[in-house]
Automatic annotation (TrEMBL):
<keyword id="KW-1003">Cell membrane</keyword>
<protein>
    <recommendedName>
        <fullName>Ciliogenesis-associated TTC17-interacting protein</fullName>
    </recommendedName>
</protein>
<keyword id="KW-0206">Cytoskeleton</keyword>
<keyword id="KW-0970">Cilium biogenesis/degradation</keyword>
<dbReference type="GO" id="GO:0005634">
    <property type="term" value="C:nucleus"/>
</dbReference>
<keyword id="KW-0472">Membrane</keyword>
<dbReference type="InterPro" id="IPR047501">
    <property type="entry name" value="DD_CATIP"/>
</dbReference>
<dbReference type="InterPro" id="IPR048777">
    <property type="entry name" value="CATIP_N"/>
</dbReference>
<keyword id="KW-0539">Nucleus</keyword>
<dbReference type="GO" id="GO:0005886">
    <property type="term" value="C:plasma membrane"/>
</dbReference>
<dbReference type="Pfam" id="PF21772">
    <property type="entry name" value="CATIP_N"/>
</dbReference>
<feature type="domain" description="Ciliogenesis-associated TTC17-interacting protein N-terminal">
    <location>
        <begin position="28"/>
        <end position="254"/>
    </location>
</feature>
<keyword id="KW-0963">Cytoplasm</keyword>
<comment type="similarity">
    <text>Belongs to the CATIP family.</text>
</comment>
<dbReference type="GO" id="GO:0005856">
    <property type="term" value="C:cytoskeleton"/>
</dbReference>
<comment type="function">
    <text>Plays a role in primary ciliogenesis by modulating actin polymerization.</text>
</comment>
<dbReference type="GO" id="GO:0030041">
    <property type="term" value="P:actin filament polymerization"/>
</dbReference>
Amino acid sequence: MEIQLHDESPAWTEGLEPREELKASDVALTFMSNIEPAELQKCVFPDSLVTLSECGTDLGTFRVTVEFARRDQQPCLLLQAQSHGAIDESPCGTTVTAYLNSELEVLEEDYHEYIKLEGHAWNKRCHMVQLDGQMVIDKVTTVGEEVTKKSVSYPMSVLRGLVTEGSNLLLMRLIALGKAMPENMTFITFDEGLHIVHTTFSELGLNLLEVGCKTMEVFGVERIVHSVEGKPTTWQCYFLNDGHLASRVQVGSPITMRCLQLPSQQEIGFEKIPHLWEEDMEMRSKFLDRKEELKADHASYLRQHPEIRALISDFLQFLLLRKPQDVFQFTREYFLPFASRQTYELSLKDR
């Protein structure tokens, strides 16, 4: 089934009456528009949690990274989240990659979720990108051999206050660092059917949580995602004082994501020098430019010397065939004749 929506009227699906256009609250829109560069600077760090069952069994990992990046030559934030593990010996996981501007507006996002069951697999991919004033969304769901595709586009004018799977992780970091949340924080998002629905954030207050060997004070944020076709989904997250995620759980699920070790602290005596976000992003852009120049230069050199790839390929094949215990000694002996040949050629030139 494929659905294409391209007008600016409220979106609906075949067989359903047109629904009232949902909007984010004024409080939510104000919060997003008032995000300061210095606040975003504090959010650029990684998180790493362990996924645990009710009985404490390690089921997998959950990681989030936020960094300055560039998309279409414009500075932005890149958020990447990965959750991988196994439930009842069935591998499963989720990967999110999102490019966001300074107001957490999604420029592009890719979401992938999978479960590998015995005999068949389940996959869901959802990609959204801004194109010509529209948010174009393509969703592909694969269950065994059956593939279902759905495509929808919404004008950006109706998506003010949009919070996605990627941007919500960064939004909660900002809220947690502020240690306070205004009331009526209602945003919009997409449900499983790609309908526009409300998602609300509320404060859970302060709590105590054991992290590592210490009992730490944490700040809680609850997110509820409503749905047209199903029941609401509720997530509860608790954050340390520095914004690091301490725990994350979907209400009703027996699985919990927990931070088992405190993030490394800055060494005492070294004060962090503040930087403006735009300046950091400019430096990041220069770094990426230089990186691309080096990649092009290296690729050009390899094209001019095809013998390099042949030499490395032969070495790796020989290494894997022999499987030596001392790899360094094996490598030295393998390349020693080449060094002898070079010495011989140099001696001839000196004559």
